Amino acid sequence: MIKAFFSSGDVIADRRADYARMLAEQGDHAAAAELMDQALELVPDWAAGWDMVGSFHEKSGNVSGAIAAWRRLEALDDDGVFGARLKLAAHDAGPAGEGTAIGYVEALFDQYAPQFEDSLVGKLGYRVPDLLMDLVSEEMERLGLEGFEHALDLGCGTGLMGERVRAKVAHLEGVDISAAMIAETARKGIYDRLQKAELVATLNARRADVDLVTAADVLIYCGALQPVLAALMPALKPGGLVAFSLEAHDGDEALFLRPSLRYAHGIAATREALVAAGLEVLRYETAVLRFDRGAPITGILVVARRPDVVVSAANELAGDGDRAA
To answer: Is pLDDT of 111 > 90?
Structure first.
């Protein structure tokens, strides 16, 4: 996607970029790319311009042109806010790296914060918070839980998940990587505490002090689950619950990066990762999470529990070996 327009510092280049965007909005992406190529001849170090021309080439079907633009962008964008590395990886032109692309995700949601809810709920039929809360409520009833003492909503965004869980929680914290998202949700007064932070760092700072962790449509930007789950387990109180969503795929790979720059996680591999981390899987379901360009996005909904006594999959295997001996 194209980030909000950043001036090149050259009036003529900016004017050509404006015309290019108009052409792209009319569907003529090849002409838009050609005009942006002309603009970049004037300002060859303009990172936002390379982001735009890469997008125009991609949408016109010129993938090689897009890859060339993103390689140039990657060299110019030290903070990674344009996601060049992810775009290259999504087109098998480079590695995605490990963990969250913090600069890209932060910039993405800072840009989207003002219209986030209208776009996600109103236009894309987003319903993950409702689906997750229904599962959590059913498990609370089954386990005889009336509520939670301390909940942590990771990637809280504008508070869509927090609004659903608020009535069940005595103390509710929200964490998000985007300052603009934090500002939007602060106006609602949902959370007892809000913090701008990356989620793994947030979890690593906790020690068994939360009994509910939620992450609605958040881990799709994080890549591999193992580092997240490894940080999650010590943060949860024994018996504490975690509820989260993922985008799903049916293949053998643990995950892959989609052209949307969101990760899709394998249905079987994800369950195995949960068990290996020592979590007790309470609910594990697939559902349509939202729509993207008119197509349904299928995802995984998980509710899991930290056992009162943590036994890892490795320990269980070792124990089985001991008994067999």
So the answer is: no
